[in-house]
Amino acid sequence: MTSTRITRRSLAGIGALTAAGALAACGRPEDGGSDPAAPAQPIAEGPATGELTVWAMGAEGEALPELLDGFREENPEVTVDVTPVPWDSAHDKFTSAIAAGTAPDVAQIGSTWMSEFVSLNALEPTPDSFPIEDFFPGAVESVTVDGTVYGIPWYVETRLVFYRTDIAEAAGITEPPTDWEGLFAMARAMQEQPDGTWGIALQPGGQGSHQSVLPFVWSAGGAVVSEDGTEFTFASAQNEEALAYYQSYFTDGVANPTPADGTTEQDFVSGAVPMFISGPWMMAAVEGLGGEGFAEKYGVFVMPQKEISASYLGGANVGVFQGSENRDSAWKLVEYLTRPEVQVRWFEIVAALPSHQGAWEDETVASNAKFEAFHTQLQTAFAVPTIATWEEVVARFDAQIEQVCKQGLDPAEALATTQSEAQTIGTGS
Amino acid sequence: MLDRRRPVLTYIVLTVFLLLVITPFVWMILGSLKTQGELLRVPPTWLPEEPTGDNFRRLFERPFGLYFRNSTVVALAVTLGNLFFSSMFGYALAHLDFPLKRLLFVLVLVCLMIPGLVTFIPQYVLVVNLGLANTIPALILPFLVQPFSVFLMRQFFLGLPRELLEAGRIDGVGEIAIFFRIYLPLAGPAFATLGILTFLGSWNNFLWPLVVSSDESTYTLPVALALISTGQNQTDYGLLLAGATLIVLPILVVFLFFQRHFIQGIASSGIK
């Protein structure tokens, strides 16, 4: 299964290139050179009217009409047409639509697509009336391209350490660790318990493994892209420290360097690998597998710190496309979606974590201790840099991580290679 | 081909290959009856421990009939279009003499060699400019005559004797009647092959319908299945396998129905 998905992704990459090529070739007259940032226009007063087309992915797309009932009540004159788009190849659909000028008014936008869409001059800058500072800082970063805000963070997710509380207790661990050494010691202690095969599940390279490594990079005070987003900074002492730490889990035999795909949940429930690092969706997955009462057998804690505790911030944004014929109403819809109370409702419907910090004060979200840990982590969770070539660059990074974890490549060497490959690719700006 | 003295060996070889081919299908069908938890279990189980119809039930909570109808309409139209137009074009390239015939054939070959992704965006822009975005015809028209079909039919007709054409002309049969009443009735095996191949291609097409359709009312089965089974961070494998099982069934039926012709078709295109 995984291999087909990767093939589709690489196809998506080709599609994206084709799209960019087509755009460049067409040279739409309104493309104003390399700096598309026009000043944000304010939103007109009064209720939303007319027709709006909205694209949203997967389960979100299917559940969205239900969430929009309130919007329709407030704006009886408006008709909203929601198209659910499959996550698979959604990127191709967007780039094609942007090329052909058939993009929707409002859409859910994957956080890694932002800079690319902005460079295609496809997104409207966010009007100043939005209280952007109310959202998690990491999430705001993901909608900021070259200093301009495009769209609004819709929902967020971040990664925590999941662990089996019962096994930890048997291993004599009462308090979750707070620093790197503590996490390593805990994983080792968990591994030595009767059921334990490995201490912690970590991705040993391959597609997406940078998402597991970057939190440690940030934790060590490192970064892979300079503040202004113009240069790569893979080769640094902090990054090396982080990657060496990550590598030690494999060289010391605490994490499996060749895990089978999709076994994390199963191994967690059986106790074979009683720890892993992942996002909120894993809660439903392990509870579904573990059955009745399993929710009491595991806990989550925030990422351990070196300099700081840092984690990966994912999720999705919502934005308005350039050329929307109904942009005032479109922004009103975005405003509705990002209200705290609507975000709480959204959390109830699809369990998406609110991007608006105010929504977390609501009992529905705050009552669960595990969600509180996510809340804490979100304060220090970082989004990936918004540079147009990001996907391409991290694919190289993923490959190097694999060599570090599986073949014992020197972390410094891996980072130097990634750095030179990244420089060849460029930041796309 | 088969060695009569060693039927046992033949059967062993055949069985091994049959198993290789059939195992993924069996896994898919059995998997569609398992829960997500059981599907992800290591070591994997073959037979579902607690068979459940839950995946299918959740599948039919959606307008699956609509997706099924869309897929069927599109696949049938594309198949018929290819059978009809490509056989005419292929016949003309094989047996008729007209100016620029060679050039036309070379163009068909060129079209065959250009990767589909290169023309993907321009084709989409074209469809949008024609006002066909998000319609069923947009899923059909670009595939109505495919270069591969033309090529296949030309090669097939080349294998039929030209004397038939000459005899028809001498007997005063019209050109159109020669095609429809002499050559076409002989094209059964080629039709079966081409029919299955184009039907399969259209039935499984994912990227084009995904990009062209902006409304669930025009979604085809693969697009709808991707939508409901694959999330941002997780895949619902049970639902995916149940959907895949339902998508494969019509293909199996079509194939069983045409199997005899299909094999003849492969044989004739290989020998003649």
UniProtKB/TrEMBL annotation, chain A:
Residues 1-24 form the signal peptide. One of its GO terms (cellular component) is ATP-binding cassette (ABC) transporter complex, substrate-binding subunit-containing. It comes from the Bacteria. This is ABC transporter substrate-binding protein. PROSITE patterns: PROKAR_LIPOPROTEIN, TAT. Keywords: Signal, Transport. GO terms for biological process: maltodextrin transmembrane transport; maltose transport. Belongs to the bacterial solute-binding protein 1 family. It holds the Pfam family SBP_bac_1. One of its GO terms (molecular function) is maltose binding. It comes from Brachybacterium phenoliresistens. InterPro entries: SBP, TAT_signal.
